[in-house]
Amino acid sequence: MSYSPAAADVAKLRNQTGAGMMDCKKALTEAEGDFDKAVDILRKKGQKVAANRADRESTEGAVIARVNADNTMGVVISLNCETDFVGKNEAFVELAFELAEQAIAYSNKEEFLASDFHGMTVADKLIEQTGVIGEKIEIGAFERLEGPFVGAYIHAGNKIAALTALSAKVDGADEVAKSVSMQAAAMNPIALDETKVSQETIDKELEIERHKLTEEGKPANIIDNILKGKMQRFYKDNTLVHQDFIKDSSMSVSDYVKSINGDLKVTGFVRVSLS
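Above: the chain sequence. Below: its structure as tokens.
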């Protein structure tokens, strides 16, 4: 007589792995009720699906930012999948949040992927979920930020998230860090301030503007002065602390931060988006 798994065992395996009822029933039947063996069967199925989908683009998913208990360090990860349908799935988003909470304890993506997650590595969990969901599931971004005070913001829909580090833990720091993270998410600055813009970016911008001015017939002796003004504008539009504050365009982000505390500064930020 062939083995038929109890409904409670099927439900238990489904809760642990997230696999469909029929897949769990098949795995338990094949394993003749051996729970660990059934988990292995599902994992092997995941490996097979993962191998078949290795060359797929995983550009959808959920981007989650979390900070530690004392707000001195934060992490942003993206849990990537192939379709927006899966990326919005409640169980998928819950997994992304749980993984982000775990990621706080690790300094890089490799350590995080090798860490224990409910009795298997994070990397194995991703393979398992690839089998369960039928799409390529992987960790895309892994970004950390440390500072005297770190705050986070996740944009609605979990497609963009940001972290901001402040120079001190002061009254109102939580609201400031969240507001500046929201700014970074919305306005996508290329750097914190002009000192953090790469020389390559500066040279490219200067070359574009110089070419425009030459085409317009501006005399060579005044082009350099015009370029200085153009670069100031570029920094204002593209660096976080100099941008107009989205909640009050009459002040810069730096001015907003100082309005909460005269000595407070933004010391760093991280932004991750799926697109």
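The chain has a mean pLDDT of 91.
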